[in-house]
Design goal:
Elements: H1 10-24, H2 36-46, H3 51-64, H4 68-73, H5 76-83, H6 90-105, H7 114-118, H8 125-136, H9 145-154, H10 164-177, H11 183-196, H12 215-218, E1 235-245, E2 249-254, E3 264-265, E4 268-269, H13 275-285, E5 293-303, E6 307-317, E7 329-333, H14 345-358
Parallel strand pairs: 1-6
Antiparallel strand pairs: 1-4, 2-3, 2-7, 5-6
This protein binds iron/sulfur cluster (SF4).
């Protein structure tokens, strides 16, 4: 491990970060509350999501479900509909399960110790530390992507941060500068410092209060850190969606598993089909005897963390109401997808395009 002997400066690092935070912090609604439910909501929403994008979602959820009991009692389809656009829907499903756990096992009162918080469904080290420190001022460092970056640079941590050896090095370095007297403030401050000052690209090193204490700056290694090893290879796949139109209605199914579990989609074949194969697949789903007209195709690409989906939406028209539908498929108004029936951003792209075409 190539951490330089910076430990004599750790106190000044912590003091400098707190002073910087006092001056530059953003005014965000979850910083005005000690309610663990609201803090939890903000932390879960902001994982993989930018603050500006997450903010309206946070406000909508807090307004619709002011307490954890309200959230626990909500209908999952309503939660997923409101979550549309944030992605990573397992976060919403897990939160819903965890809220029910709080209501059933803790009489609706959020647990106040780290172990009990971490026992809730979907709550990992990061979220448990965030709730424990921000809501209850318990001395747990919160290590998100911003903190990994700041600390890797400050201490010149060369181990890959996506491996246990890198996690350990960062954890030890954070612990060495952690302010145990003001855990909530310190955690907020270093995360904000990473978000605004020590950014992934073009960090503001020339006007940084930590410049003289920063090993990466001194060694001209800012652009190299943090270091990640062997990123997951992105696999390319094709989705063929069958958008069958009968007057104002279409036919959808609810996903049973995967990242879009419980969301709704047009019937999906997870491979590329030619036009004849599309017609054959449709006949299997609705009714062999009904004449079909194959219309135009909408193509789009959707990126997930480890998948690149090339999506082909085929418009298929029928003049006779299908009487046979494959068991999991049901008829709905096109306008109800994304409102009554929550759906993914990928399906939403098709719906947006269809609206444009109708203008
Ligand atoms: S000097 Fe640059 S790299 Fe070092 S902490 Fe400041 S902004 Fe980050």
């Amino acid at each position: 491990m190539c951490i330089l002997p910076f430990f004599a400066k750790v106190l000044r690092i912590s003091t400098s970060i707190l002073a910087w935070y006092t001056k530059y912090k953003r005014d965000l609604p979850w910083r005005h509350t000690r309610d663990p439910y609201k803090i939890w909501l903000s932390e879960v929403m902001l994982q993989q999501t930018r603050v500006q994008q997450g903010l309206p979602y946070y406000e909508e959820f807090v307004s619709a479900f002011p307490t954890i009991t309200d959230f626990a009692n909500a209908d999952e389809q309503q939660i997923l509909t409101m979550w549309q656009g944030l992605g990573y829907y397992s976060r919403a499903r897990n939160m819903h399960t965890a809220a029910k756990q709080v209501v059933e096992n803790h009489a609706g009162i959020f647990p106040q110790d780290y172990t009990a918080i971490k026992a809730l469904k979907g709550v990992g080290d990061y979220t448990a530390a965030a709730i424990a420190s921000f809501a209850f001022d318990l001395p747990y460092p919160v290590i998100d992507g911003n903190v990994y970056r700041v600390v890797s640079r400050l201490f010149n941590i060369c181990e890959p941060i996506n491996k246990p050896v890198g996690h350990k090095a960062v954890y030890e370095a954070v612990t060495s500068i952690f302010d145990t007297h003001r855990p909530a403030l310190f955690n907020q401050a270093i995360m904000e410092f990473g978000a605004l000052q020590c950014t992934p690209k073009k960090p503001k090193c020339e006007e940084c209060p930590l410049q003289s204490k920063c090993a990466a700056y001194e060694l001209d290694k800012v652009a190299e850190l943090p270091f990640k090893e062997g990123r997951t290879k992105v696999k390319s796949i094709t989705h063929t969606y069958l958008v069958i139109h009968y007057r104002e209605t279409t036919f959808i199914e609810q996903r049973k598993a995967g990242i879009w579990q419980n969301l709704h989609q047009f019937p999906l074949i997870e491979e590329a089909l030619n036009r004849q194969e599309v017609i054959e697949a449709c006949k299997q789903l609705i009714d062999n005897e009904i004449p079909l007209t194959l219309g135009d195709k909408f193509k789009t690409t959707h990126l997930l963390s480890h998948r690149k989906i090339s999506a082909h939406f085929y418009n298929i028209y029928v003049d006779i109401k299908p009487l046979f539908l494959k068991s999991n498929i049901f008829e709905t108004l096109l306008a109800d997808i994304g409102t009554k029936y929550p759906t993914s951003v990928l399906i939403q792209k098709y719906l947006n395009q269809a609206k444009e075409d109708d203008k």
